[in-house]
Design brief:
Chain lengths: 267, 287
């Protein structure tokens, strides 16, 4: 019932991409985003598409898993496409009707901008599909740790993220269970108007909040009894190491960057 | 209202890397008035099975027939069927939400569309079934009760719908011995007095020895044994091989037999073992 949420869902297989250092992967993902913005032509996009496809093959992640991440954003992508299609001025008019004016330039720009969004989502999905939430927030913590100098709570932030991510599936499961339990008592979550539906949420939300608070207090107690006292002087179980694999990945990304820069100069 | 399960198979996350087969070709039939225990190791598919019996989960293949009607048929009113098959989930106290005990128990009957008087009468009936004093508890918040009491309130919430079949998933899990005994006594009475068909999932073989008239043993999504407790508990080897225990009394009996005591192999209730041992002891001391 509630298991169709893909954004940020880890795809647990083993691959070269999965084994990359999360810090490197984060930096590469940022680099990828920059590269997507640098690309100026469809040829550049073809190169990027090739890169994404190759990476997903290398990561053992089916391409349709990547596309599934687009689903929650489909409205924004379609809106981007339509806005650009109707409101870009151009020379070659394809369709002219009442106030609607579709030009060749408008169409190309619409396609270009919506493709850019698609690539951004796919690229970041690749990161989250191949990196477990725990190592992801590990990576973020280390990348943010220079900011500790100005009293930025990098460790606490990462810990909060880890816990939040960790409890999303738990709370989803809990929601599913409570929903079923109330349905077994004749609750109806699906029909009725807006008000009666909102009312129907009470038997779901109250137990959910109660259980979230109970879990939070249990967790705090468990952490405290294991002497957790924040990030100061804390060592890690898994020390991150840069391997040959990571350098290769950086090399590939540098190559992609070079190609896109060349494309910008010569086309 | 007999329940029949035919070749039921259920897979979670069909068509992805997370696909797991939870139930694999399960078939059985439960008659009116039976007290069936469903036992099995963690992950053997018990809870999945139980959720099929009132249509909360849809089978991947196979049928669930209630009173001869296909639960997943097109023209079946699932909500109407659900009120005749009461399902009490694991840790049901986590589903409580109302301000008072009485209001919470009334949630089910209200959803059935019963009148205020009838609902109030049902609340009294249900609280009586679970041994909660109406005057004392009806107006209190369910969140200030003890764990065992909260659980009884939750069970009352299901009983208030007066189901013909009551299904309970681990009703005694996490309770202290007294809370556990109260729940079991209550179920015993309910079964004897109201002739409600009861299906109970449990890890506790001692609970089962006390209550069940029939046991269904599950392992890895399949039914591996189905029979009376006497038949099942005599097969200690089969039970250990799938990671289950036999009741303490049955184990003690087996140990004594191994030492050469003259006891039958199929004792599993503490009282009957006690009687046998006392008789043996008297015979021994008389000669």
């Amino acid at each position: 019932m509630l298991n169709n949420i893909t954004m940020g869902q880890y795809y647990p297989v083993d691959s070269r991409v999965h084994r990359l250092d999360p810090r490197i992967k984060l930096i590469l993902a940022i680099a990828f985003i920059v590269i997507v913005f640098m690309a100026k032509t469809f040829l550049g996009y073809a190169v990027i598409l090739g890169f994404v496809w190759m990476t997903s093959r290398l990561a053992n992640v089916p391409f349709r898993m990547l596309l599934r991440g687009l689903k929650p954003l489909r409205l924004i992508i379609i809106l981007t496409f339509l806005l650009n299609l109707f409101f870009t001025s151009g020379e070659t008019v394809w369709v002219e009707f009442w106030i609607i004016r579709i030009t060749r330039e408008g169409f190309l720009q619409a396609a270009f901008y919506s493709l850019r969004l698609v690539f951004l989502v796919i690229g970041t999905s690749l990161l989250t599909l191949t990196t477990s939430p725990v190592s992801l927030s590990d990576g973020i913590e280390i990348l943010l740790s220079p900011l500790k100098k100005i009293h930025f709570p990098a460790h606490e932030l990462a810990m909060m993220m880890t816990i939040a991510l960790r409890f999303i599936p738990t709370l989803l499961e809990e929601t599913d269970k409570i929903m079923k339990a109330q349905m077994a008592r004749g609750a109806d979550f699906e029909s009725g108007n807006l008000i009666s539906r909102a009312k129907a949420m009470v038997p779901l939300l109250v137990p959910l909040f109660v259980s979230a608070f109970r879990r939070a207090s249990d967790l705090a107690m468990a952490m405290e009894s294991r002497c957790y006292h924040g990030g100061d002087g804390r060592t890690r179980l898994r020390v991150l190491k840069i391997t040959k694999n990571d350098w290769i990945a950086c090399g590939v990304m540098a190559l992609l960057l070079a190609l896109i820069i060349l494309e910008g100069i010569f086309l | 209202m007999p329940i029949e399960v035919r070749h039921l198979t259920h897979c979670y996350s069909e068509g992805s890397a997370f696909r797991t087969v939870a139930l694999n070709d399960v078939s059985f039939r439960v008659e009116d008035g039976e007290f069936v225990g469903i036992i099995g190791h963690t992950g053997s598919g018990k809870s999945t099975l139980v959720q099929h019996l009132n249509g909360l989960l849809r089978p991947t293949s196979g049928d669930v027939l209630v009173d001869g009607e296909d639960l997943n048929g097109e023209h079946v009113n699932r909500r109407a069927l659900r009120r005749r098959i009461g399902l009490v989930f694991q840790y049901p106290e986590y589903q409580l939400f109302e301000e008072t005990v009485a209001k919470d128990i009334a949630f089910g009957p209200k959803n059935q569309g019963l009148s205020a008087e009838e609902t109030a009468e049902r609340v009294r009936y249900a609280m009586d079934c679970v041994h909660l004093n109406y005057e004392k508890y009806a107006g209190r918040s369910p969140f200030e009760l003890s764990g065992g009491q909260m659980r009884r309130v939750a069970i009352a919430g299901v009983l208030a719908m007066r189901p013909a079949v009551l299904i309970l998933d681990e009703p005694t899990a996490g309770l202290d011995p007294r809370g556990r005994d109260k729940i079991l006594t209550m179920l015993e009475e309910l079964h004897a007095r109201e002739n409600v068909t009861i299906l109970m999932v449990s890890h506790s073989m001692d609970d089962m020895a006390r209550l069940a008239s029939r046991l269904i043993v599950m392992s890895e999504g399949k039914i591996v044994a189905d029979g009376t407790p006497r038949e099942i508990f005599a097969r200690e080897e089969m039970m250990t091989s799938i990671g289950l225990d036999v009741p303490d009394a049955a184990r003690l009996c087996a140990l004594l037999r191994a030492k050469g005591y003259d006891l039958p192999a199929d004792l599993f209730r503490p009282e009957e073992l006690k009687d046998r041992l006392l008789r043996l002891w008297k015979e021994g001391s008389s000669c």
